[in-house]
Automatic annotation (TrEMBL):
GO terms for molecular function: carboxylic ester hydrolase activity. It comes from Actinoplanes auranticolor. It holds the Pfam family PETase. The keyword Hydrolase applies. Residues 35-293 form the PET hydrolase/cutinase-like domain. Keywords: Hydrolase, Signal. The keyword Hydrolase applies. This is Lipase. Belongs to the AB hydrolase superfamily.
Length: 295
């Protein structure tokens, strides 16, 4: 049986309430701290330079997962911080796209893990699997990570997220819909025949490519974003002139926003608000939208 979890919005309320109480207590004792830190903060105060570096502040290791030793997905690769001094970490499962293997977007594994996450990049049961199947496989991979994997003791099972490219991005939407206890979803150039996600409650960052001719932003990313309720924290980043395959090449806008989103909503780390609201701008960005409630 899955352990009960506190929904993301409720957890953020509790963290904010705790911070308020700490401020009151601090004022009574003469403390000058402006805000109590989230208990899930991991790593130094963020900067653009840190987020754009090839690796974050945590050293990482990796291990392969054979498809013969798991059920519900096709194995993959786990990346994890080697340090245990910070306690447990949140975890992220990531799916590749249609006809692709994990190697097509594998740069994301160590990049995200080095900011303080356990990441599993999955191989799908079949490279032809559709988004709904990929969503189920992402959830199976998270269950494996938290219940059976050799790194399960490093993971806080209440702080989990999903991501994916193309049909894997569509799968991450499916997973977030099916398991609202997830803390974040990051679909990249997502493809899905379902256009309405009005039931989605998981904080979701969608990243699309302006010149995507396979999952065009006008038919996929933007309708997906618009259909997510305003009460659900959400953002949409569109990369200037980017094709459908932008996640298959190392790029800083994708990594910067994905890490910031995961840190903010999986780790409840408000130090990353600055990267989300008002959000990124510049020549690499053709559009950015978000609801900006955050606190």
């Amino acid at each position: 049986m899955q352990s009960p979890t506190i929904p993301a919005r409720s957890r953020r309320f509790l963290v904010t309430a705790a911070a308020t109480l700490a401020l009151i207590a601090g004022s009574l004792t003469g403390a000058t701290s402006a805000q109590a830190a989230s208990p899930y903060e991991r790593g130094p105060a963020p900067t653009t330079a840190i987020l754009d570096a090839g690796r974050g502040p945590f050293a990482t290791a990796q291990q392969s997962v054979s498809r013969l030793g798991v059920s519900g997905f096709g194995g993959g690769v786990i990346y994890y911080p080697t340090s245990t001094a910070e306690g447990t970490f949140g975890a992220v499962a990531i799916s590749p796209g249609y006809t692709a293997s994990w190697s097509s977007i594998s740069w994301l594994g160590p990049r995200i893990a080095s900011h303080g996450f356990v990441v599993i990049g999955i191989e799908t049961n079949s490279t032809l699997d559709q988004p709904a199947s990929r969503g189920n496989q992402l959830l199976a991979a998270l269950d494996y990570l938290t219940r059976s994997s050799s790194v399960r003791s490093r993971i806080d099972a209440s702080r989990l997220a999903v991501a994916g490219h193309s049909m894997g991005g569509g799968g991450s939407l499916e997973a977030a819909k099916d398991r609202p206890s997830l803390q974040a979803a990051v679909p990249l150039a997502p493809w899905n025949l379902t256009k309405s996600w009005s039931g989605l409650r998981v904080p979701t960052l969608i990243i699309g490519g302006e010149s995507d001719s396979i999952a065009s932003v006008s038919a996929h990313s933007i309708p997906f974003y618009n259909s997510i309720p305003a009460a659900t924290e959400k953002a949409y980043l569109e990369l200037n002139n980017a094709s459908h395959f932008f996640p298959q090449t190392t790029n800083n806008p994708t990594a910067r926003q994905a890490v910031a989103w995961l840190k903010r909503f999986v780790d409840d780390d408000t130090r990353y608000d600055q990267f989300i609201c008002p959000g990124p701008s510049g020549l690499a960005i053709s559009d950015y939208r978000n609801t900006c409630p955050l606190s």
